[in-house]
Write the structure tokens for this entry.
Amino acid sequence: MKHPKGGGFKRGGKKGSTDADPFFEQETKKRRKVSYDDEDIESIDSDAEENGFHGEDRKGAAEEEEDEFADETAGEKRKRLAEALLLRTREAQRRQREERDDDDEDDEDDDIVKTLMKKQQEDSGRVRRAIASSVQEPLSSDEFSIIVKHRKSVVSVALSDDDTRGFSASKDGTILHWDVSSGKSDKYKWPSDEVLKSHGMKVREPRSKKHSRESLALAVSSDGRYLATGGVDRHVHIWDVRTREHVQAFPGHRNTVSCLCFRHGTAELYSGSFDRSVKAWNVEDKAFVQDSFGHQDEILAIDALRKERALTVGRDRTMLLHKMPETSRTIYRAPASSLESCCFISDTEYLSGSDNGTVALWGMLKKKPVFLLKNAHSIVADGTTTNENGDHDYVNSSTTNSWVSSVAVCRGSDLAASGAGSGFVHLMAVEAGAIRPLFKLPLTGFVNSMAFAKSGKFLIAGVGQETRFGRWGCIKSAQNGVAIHPLRLS
């Protein structure tokens, strides 16, 4: 019986044999190329070591490691990471026990359980460090001191996770990296246009050379490896903190990049812009991830915690919680005021500052503020900066000084701060459904950005003669720079 055309190839040997199958022949050849005897492997390794080449070995090991975990499920990955965390915690506890000369193993297990539970609760926001109650009243000698100077107003500041290094960006386009204790600073130098183009930057024509380097936002990753900046040139720029060199430029925004933040514990970056969009980037892979919309006007501030969620406020008087994986948003509406700043307190609580001098506390389950601290920074006698229709007078400089342009929270704690151009930074305690004022720290100028030390031992503020996004007001007596204030904890 004849086989039909195209009915397949003729197999050799016994029925079901794979000896003459071309597919298996190719597979055999491929395997034969990499199947070395022990003696061959030794000779290759010894030759490589003699010549000083180890890069291929590391590359091969990395590929093997990737192949090893390529097929694992999400649950298996979580289990592997949890076991690694448990191992690190046990080693840390063992070192502490050796220093104490303690040999009780039962206590070691109890300490590990308590440490892991405390860490999980603090990360999830279930337990909050009670720092606000231990903050003592500042002495007359305790005041803000300028540790880093800029030629123009500082628009954004950030601290590394270990509280030893700080970063600041100014309207004059300079980006500085400085030591917190000594104030010694290093400048990030912009590369040439050719290098920027090779790193992904798209040059738009005509371009104003004068303002192309003006930065308005800055953020540093949790591991301290990457620094992100953004501004008038509509790009998100990534810098290597170790070498202070430019490594990548992300195009995509159609207007000024106004705010940036890294998701804690990851290399994922969120950016907000005057084009009303929020974009997510993977800095490690140098790739765009996704974008999110919802604002009807310019976005002014953004913040993120460990979850894939971004909190933003804009000139449309709304605060949006962007749930990135679900591509959905929750909208919170401010009562008759434009929101200027925002930050997470926990996954379910948020803080915001308004242009009428009000600081608001928000909860996840309510679309309106849970608590309003009115007239916190208002310098008008009766504290009224809006009429009954909610209209604003942006021309009067007295109202400009009361704009709460920055709010900050000491991560995982109940200590918060707000800053404006009213001459004071306010320390506050975030309690159950309320905000309790603590102390006023004098500081002349517009406080455009703030950051707490993770330990709560000091507060830094980016201050200047002008506001972040314009020249709505001007305080000539202010110094342009980064100010630091020590906090005494009992």
User: Anything to note?
Assistant: Confidence is low (pLDDT under 50) at residues 6-18, 25-59, 381-398.
